[in-house]
Amino acid sequence: MKRLIFLHVVAILLLNACQNQAKQDSVPQKPNILFLLADDLGYGELGCYGQEVIQTPELDKLAQNGLRFTDFYAGNAVCSPSRAVLMTGKSSSYNTVRGNSGVFNDDRWMRVALKKDEMTIGEMLREAGYQTGFIGKWHLDDPDDITTWACNRGFDYAVQEQWGSRFGGIQYDEQMHWINGKQDSVYYHINEWECKDDFRTNLAFGYLDKIQKDKPFFLFMSFRAPHGHEYEIGNKEIYSEKGWPAAERLHAAKTTLLDKQVGRLLNKLDEMGELENTLVIFTSDNGPHREGRGHNPEFFNSNGELRGIKRDLFEGGIRVPMIVWWKGKVTAGINTNHLSGFQDILPTLAEVAGVEIPAQTNGISLLPVLFGEEQASHESMNWEFQLDGWSRTMPDGGFRQSARIGEWKGVRYGIMNETLLYNLNDDISETNNVAGDHPEIVKQMNDIFEDKRAETQGFPYGGVVQDYKAKDRHQ
């Protein structure tokens, strides 16, 4: 009898265990999220977006096996305001940050940090139970106030390089990478690595090796390439046989080595058994640059058919590559022309993580688009950008605006100047201004420029008229 009772108890325990396991198996597991951000990578600099010279096999394969966006836009035309849109889900004309620097006390140009009450993607996902890591370029802080750095804006593990204030303040060594705000953390030695992104990827490996296996992670890789201010790399051989000018060989090398790091990260996750449950997103913070001691974006046709480059609100300055891969969720080899941008990333990741979309965002979740379902698009999108006044005269205030309504694109540089109008279906290169033929659409654009915005300190509407170079005045 005792044996029968014992067997009965064991059977009940086994049944309960199986039922509990079944319940656990039925609950969707939150995916890991790997967000990959290039720095100044143009729309035409990947093979999967038409590049014919620079080799990017890893990203081309990611696009072949994932979803490629054709009409996706960065938050703005330079790094700080673009990244601010990405981090907060607030489009550029509502964002706190609208240029690499804002103007204060008459003509003192200073970096502007995100406000403390603006939730970042890192803060949102950490509250959702994610382990959060950030590696690379932050550029959304006051360099003299560590509370504004990535380590205090939602990231458990944050490695960032740092720049000092242009006028006064602490000066930092660009090769020093601070880990969680500690100055003597880790130093990048150029000759020990193929490039800075090679170094940063190894730091990412160290982070991934320490994650808890029972919790999802969010890793934001803010790469350096192909930004022009990485003037030297350790790999001297790649493309050396091409006979290109030094600046162009360096640019191509950084881009291909960036691609290599993407492959390394994906292989690492595969080896860890984490890749199958990881959502991978790749994009760029703005269009291609004309920097780096002689680089010309026309050499590799870096913006494809698009007009403009970094700091332009024409298509070439803000339309960027966007690739999404998610095994078993995103259909392989699909393209979408869904109109979308950086403000849509935060609400998308909120839905992926199963949390409420923060009220601050005016973005629209792309999750249905990723699953091949219908999703409402933006009736219009608009951008507002302030050039900084460090080393330039700005007779028009350095203030730039653009907007898109369906196939129509409006551009205005200086609020006293005329609005240019283009039909992107017929004229993706924005060469034929048809404003005179469509005054009603021009009015819609101007109404958007004036009404779909909010004031923010340091970035006055209309910009800052300046007939001198502020950098010279404050030397």
UniProtKB/TrEMBL annotation:
Belongs to the sulfatase family. PROSITE patterns: SULFATASE_1, SULFATASE_2. This is Arylsulfatase. InterPro entries: Alkaline_phosphatase_core_sf, Sulfatase, Sulfatase_CS, Sulfatase_N. One of its GO terms (molecular function) is metal ion binding. PANTHER family: ARYLSULFATASE FAMILY MEMBER, ENDO-4-O-SULFATASE. Keywords: Calcium, Hydrolase, Metal-binding, Signal. Residues 1-22 form the signal peptide. Coiled coil: none annotated. Residues 31-355 form the Sulfatase N-terminal domain.
